[in-house]
Amino acid sequence: MARRTPRPHARRTAATGQGCRVTADGRGRAQGGRAVSGQQWFAFVESNTTGTGREFCAAAWARGLRPVLLTRDAARYVYVEQDGVETRVLDTGDMAAVLDHCAELLRDGGLAGIASSSEYFVSTAALVAAKLGLPAADGDAIARCRDKETQRIELAAAGVPVPRFTAATEAGQAVRAAAAIGHPVVLKPVLGSGSVGVRLCRDAAETRAWAAELLGRATDERGNPVPGRILVEAAVQGPEFSVETFDGAVVTAVAKHIGPEPYFVETGHDVPAPVPERTAAALGDTALRALAALGLGWGAAHTELRLTDEGPVVIEVNPRLAGGMIPVAVRAALGIDLVDAVIARAAGQPVPPARDAAGRAAVRFLHMEREGRVTDIAGLTAAREAPGVVAVGINTAVGRTVRRTNSFQDRLGSVVATGADPQQAGARAWDATRLITIGQTDPEERPQHENLAGPAQGAGGR
């Protein structure tokens, strides 16, 4: 059976406008506020540009720490200016540069910990923390896990159920692999996050075209170089879930809502997943087996699975905290604050127990209806005051241009709501999203060279 978590503390927060979050005990960070002299630094190596990144900074402030974002481009982050987050601009793809900056922070007032909510930088954060003698996960294990081919090989060798898969380095090889596996197949980058570049291919023509598209990309949406290698895997049928874990123990299973094929854009989440206890236990057990096989188990992990007639199949293990506002929903439903737990663990501080909570929560996303420049955002107050709503997030800003990427970047906003049951929580969250309107001008003509996987301006990036 899955081992259950010792239930870390739930830090109750209330949104007080886009740029301020205040905790139930009165601690918080006002928009544009200044750090208190004597606070230790807490460094973030990049961040999610959406909800969880902002939550991480709020949690660090609430613990009396001084968050600083190490980033190539602070303009990517809507919340940085709104919340007064301090930044350091450097090449975060250069581990030596990150190490130098963190060592400087250690000398300048002390450095309590290092973390990242971004898939692309969790390994760097862990490796740098370890070099400086700070609490950290196994950075090498994280790096191996992040390579989806290596991850599949290690899971399969340990007997953990995964889809049939083959790596390909050219389009013809991908077509042959798909024929051997059997269509439909899923093509994805071996390094990536947020469903960027992930697509269902139903036949050889679609497989060849999408493989050529992926293999033609030199960088990801963050500007990091990518290997000339993609994954071709069987399309597993069945509902999708995630299992959230902390320190090698199951926190909860989460039900996913997925948009229309051929893409895999998440449209919402239900916490906890409305499934029988036996099913939840099977999902949790499979996730823990996967983590053990990969040498993971320190801190947070987010494992995605499909539930087939034969049982759970691991789609991906992500060696980081979940995005997509899942941690906010977990806090609202179960009283477990995973964001706060990550900060506490990385800072070497105790992880307090859970608090009372609503029991059920849901996340629903506000997706872009068309491309264009954002001219107006309205209805946020009405959404925040709607029944059951505990969090409203906006992932864009007036003046930004949003481009469709068929990934998580298409989500312009989110609502988290609680309810007496999954149906009520979901309905409340969905109804609140419809109170929000985002005005846009007609899109400018897209430059021919623009990378569809990651716009220079848009809803964000992980």
From TrEMBL:
Residues 1-12 have a biased composition (Basic residues). Keywords: ATP-binding, Ligase, Nucleotide-binding. InterPro entries: ATP-dep_AA_Ligase, ATP-grasp, CPAse_ATP-bd, LAL_C2. SUPFAM superfamilies: Glutathione synthetase ATP-binding domain-like. GO terms for molecular function: ATP binding; ligase activity; metal ion binding. Residues 152-347 form the ATP-grasp domain. Residues 1-29, 440-462 are annotated as: Disordered. This is ATP-grasp domain-containing protein. It comes from Streptomyces cyaneochromogenes.
